[in-house]
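INTERNAL AUDIT FORM
Audit reference: QA-55
Scope: verify that the stored structure record matches its stored sequence.
Auditor: D.O.
Record contents follow.
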Amino acid sequence: MSTQRDHLAPVLISLAVAMLLTVIPLPLMLLPMRPYWVALVMIFWCLETQDLISLAGAFFIGLLLDLLGGSLLGMHALGLVILVYLVKRFRARLRFFPPWQQALSVLALLLNDRIIVLWIISLKGYALPEVIEHMENLIMNGIASR
């Protein structure tokens, strides 16, 4: 019989690799295209194993990611906790979606996480990334032209 501890090793190894991929330096041209590896791995394991990733585990992994990345402490932790909660809440539906709907659902979850991180950045009073400012201008110009 396999225990829950036996299933925990691949989860921890894949999360460690995801954190390593997150902190590996990339050229400036490729930085906007870097996937959010930790969130993708957390979504995968939440869908595959029901009870191995908890909200407390997501919070701890988020704090570790904040420490590794040098970002505001708790910023990624809050995003990952909300992400894991949403995946666990809608797990039964997400597992039976066709692949294209699963991909759109993962996109929506990752977009939600980015919105939470940008919200925390704006609450702290830091400047928003330039890409976001340009997107705001495009959206506002599109609304104003109608």
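Auditor finding: record pair retrieved intact. The chain has seven helices and no strands.
Action required: none
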